[in-house]
Design goal:
This protein is α+β, with helices and mostly antiparallel strands and 267 residues long. It has one domain: Jelly Rolls (Sandwich). It is built from 6 helices and 9 strands. The strands form 3 sheets. A 5-stranded antiparallel β-sheet has the order 1-6-5-7-2. The longest helix is centred in the N-terminal third of the chain and has 16 residues. The termini are far apart. The model has no long low-confidence stretch (mean pLDDT 97). Bound molecules: 2-oxoglutaric acid. 2-oxoglutaric acid binds next to loops.
Length: 267
């Protein structure tokens, strides 16, 4: 566990993380959020879910207010650069953030049923020539302590199955789904091509508070963004590029896709 200040220079994804991500389809980076940011995020999630009207309209999003710090937090940038796309130039990210939701889960509440994302097509997980491609990547920020069995256990390795997943593993089974535990302020990064499940929250002492963000590269899109432009307008310029339009190159104007403006926004 080591805190990564939000002003830190992002570290490259380590060889160990690459190995684990390819093997299992996920990595967990424990305890990275600074205490003040963690507290601000926890309060933001509670407000979003319980008293959203107390926030100005453009802050009623998990990508707004303190939530915007997570979009390109240095604890995840090195991983996203490696598994989605490197920065095309110093002013823009290679990744795009395309959906986000805040979560409060209380004791006895169940999350999503077991499911997985695409196994074929542009979003499907691939490993080619020593390079990971995790076309649709989920970044789950755990803002409460997670004990084993809580959180979002993953069927490790199912991002690259050779056989169809048998019916009985299409629901949570602790023998095959890998559980994790972590302190508040941790981040779980996984390929949506993995089977994963929101298990029943069993901790009566605290709710699960979390923010789930989803990423693609600037050349692909899965979710419709549905984010008002005022939310993006409140961000610094490089962060805004995580919400740009989805294309690789504009031959007519000899222009690479390295900017965000009113003509180049994700839908
Ligand atoms: O409910 C959960 O813990 C997981 C949520 C999730 O992965 C999803 O909605 O795609």
């Amino acid at each position: 566990m080591s805190v990564v200040p939000r002003s830190a220079e992002p570290a490259p994804m380590s060889e160990e993380q690459k190995f684990l991500f390819d093997l299992k389809g996920w990595v967990l980076i424990p305890g990275v959020l600074e205490p003040d940011l963690l507290e601000a995020l926890r309060q933001h999630v509670v407000k979003l879910r319980k008293e959203a009207e107390s926030l100005p309209a453009h802050e009623r999003y998990s990508l707004a207010g303190p939530g915007q710090e997570l979009i390109d937090h240095p604890a995840i940038v090195g991983v996203l650069r490696e598994i989605l796309a490197p920065d095309p130039d110093p002013s823009s990210w290679g990744f795009r953030c395309e959906s986000s939701f805040p979560m409060i889960r209380s004791v006895g509440q169940q999350g999503s049923a077991a499911h997985c994302g695409p196994l074929v097509g542009p979003m499907a997980y691939r490993m080619v020539n020593g390079q990971i491609w995790s076309g649709l990547t989920r970044v789950a920020w755990e803002l409460s302590e997670v004990k084993k069995g809580g959180g979002t256990p993953i069927l490790s390795g199912s991002h690259k199955v050779a056989f169809p997943v048998p019916e009985r593993f299409r629901e949570f089974d602790p023998l095959v789904y890998e559980e994790y535990e972590c302190p508040p302020g941790s981040v779980l990064i996984f390929s949506e091509s993995c089977w994963h499940v929101g298990t029943e929250w069993k901790d009566a002492d605290q709710d699960r508070l979390a923010i789930f963000n989803c990423y693609c590269s600037y050349m692909a899109q899965f979710h419709k963004l549905n984010l008002p432009e005022e939310v993006v307008a409140a961000m610094p310029p490089k962060r805004q590029t995580a919400f740009r339009g989805v294309w690789g190159h504009n031959f007519r104007d000899k222009q690479p896709n390295t900017y965000y403006d009113e003509t180049n926004r994700a839908l």
